[in-house]
Write a structure and sequence with these properties.
mainly alpha, single chain, about 50% helix, about 230 residues
Length: about 230
């Protein structure tokens, strides 16, 4: 009797573990069809929808995914008694997916993305969602794009055969000198230290110090450091 109960208990554990140990490939297969349905309705790449869900829910194995059906890390109240969490609960996975799209469309920081990008441009969607403040991590967009590439999720975006992917934006580098740029002034006839200092927003004493002057006398053509 005890042996039979033990076997039943172990079987239950095995089933629970099997359900929670879902692979990413299995997760994609389970949710790709609905991700594409949402893509066609809202013009957000299915690849992005899936990648965000994979990232935020650990391919459906996280606690909030298993107990709350929350696949996108969206916070809110819940009525679950099995775990304590600050995340929303949903009646089903699909309603979590729908909530993600509603969340993006209802926030002013994300709403412009729907006008700016189409369903084929997963890179800019990922970057735009990060810029909008969806996650604190500075590498969040790179992680999402990495998931898309590793799992070839762009194949689900229904790209036209002649689609040309936009080039990745090149980060502009602005070289700023830590020192103030050197400025010089050529003395003209009639100039005085006070006149030059006033026109350049400095003082006569400062000009004298920078140029090693012992007096205020100036000569036309003389170069002064300012």
């Amino acid at each position: 009797m005890i042996k039979s109960l033990l076997l039943v208990w172990l079987s239950a554990i095995a089933i629970t573990f099997s359900a929670s140990a879902q692979t990413t490939a299995e997760y994609i297969e389970e949710h790709v069809e609905y991700a594409q349905t949402l893509m066609r309705e809202h013009k957000v790449p299915a690849s992005v929808i899936l990648a965000v869900a994979i990232h935020e829910s650990a391919s459906g194995t996280s606690k909030i995914a298993r107990y709350l059906n929350n696949h996108f890390g969206i916070k809110g109240s819940n009525s679950n008694t099995e775990i304590r969490s600050s995340y929303r609960d949903y009646p089903s996975d699909r309603e979590s997916y729908e909530s993600f799209l509603e969340f993006l469309k209802s926030r002013s920081s994300f709403a412009p993305l729907f006008e700016k990008y189409d369903q084929f441009d997963y890179r800019n969607w990922a970057r735009g969602i990060q810029r909008g403040g969806y996650a604190r991590s500075r590498t969040w967009a790179s992680q999402i794009i990495g998931i898309i590439k590793r799992n070839d999720l762009s194949q689900y975006d229904e790209r036209p055969d002649d689609y040309v992917e936009p080039p990745a934006p090149v980060a502009s580098t602005i070289h700023r000198s830590t020192k103030k740029s050197k400025s010089t002034y050529t003395v003209k006839k009639g100039d005085s230290l006070n006149k030059i200092a006033k026109s350049r927003g400095t003082t006569a004493a400062s000009i004298m110090k920078k140029n090693g002057l012992k007096g205020s006398a100036l000569k036309p053509g003389q170069k002064l450091k300012l």
